[in-house]
TrEMBL record:
Keyword list, A-Z: Glycoprotein, Membrane, Transmembrane, Transmembrane helix, Vacuole
Keyword Transmembrane: yes
Gene3D superfamilies: Zn peptidases
Origin: domain of life: Bacteria
Function (record text): May be involved in vacuolar sorting and osmoregulation.
Main location: membrane
GO cellular component, one term: vacuolar membrane
Source organism (scientific name): Corallococcus exercitus
Name of the protein in question: Vacuolar membrane protease
Length: 183
């Protein structure tokens, strides 16, 4: 496994934004990294091509190697400009990254993590207020989404049946949400 350390900024916590290695590597990060900062939506945006840059992670991923991609992004407006320089680095950010990567490498060594063939399996990951992290397989996240939808529909049906919600109010509310989404 590889750990790609990158930067498109110079401060803040390093964001875990790409995982190639199924849930195993993401769970190792989850167990070991202090104050995790992770977003699967960043991976989705990055790999869709909407972000107009790339990291070395792509090269390893294309060769089938499992790994994690972490980067600083705060203060990114100075990135690759005349303002960019080592004096902009925030010592606490480097300390957080160093402590986290050391803990992660120790966890990988301790656990004997090895590629198990699930490296290409999609994984859903997100930190929880910087104190913990959720890691789900695609099947688990789909199950959670279906369960949440069924629950929401059941609550909606119960509200309509008991008269707490009325169809007209519900239609207005849905129309408002759709208008907000349309801009």
């Amino acid at each position: 496994a590889f750990i790609n350390l990158d930067a498109a900024g110079s401060r803040g916590r390093a964001l875990l934004f790409q995982v190639g290695g199924g849930t195993g590597l993401a769970r190792a990060y989850q167990r070991s990294f202090p104050a995790p900062w992770a977003m699967v939506v960043a991976q989705d945006l990055f790999q869709s091509g909407l972000v107009g840059s790339d990291t070395d992670f792509r090269v390893y991923r294309e060769h089938g190697l499992p790994g994690l991609d972490l980067a600083f992004y705060e203060d990114g407006y100075a990135y690759h400009t005349a303002l960019d320089g080592p004096e902009r680095l925030e010592p606490g950010s480097l300390q957080h990254l160093g402590d986290g990567v050391l803990a992660l490498v120790r966890e990988l060594a301790r656990s004997g993590w090895a590629a198990d063939g699930s490296e290409d399996a999609p994984v859903v990951f997100h930190d929880v207020l910087g104190v913990g992290m959720v890691v789900l397989s695609r099947a688990q996240s789909l199950g959670l989404a279906v369960g949440a939808t069924v629950f929401a529909l059941a609550v909606l049906g119960l509200g309509l049946r008991r008269g707490v919600l009325q169809g007209r109010e519900l239609r207005r509310g849905v129309a408002r949400v759709l208008r907000m989404g349309a801009g």
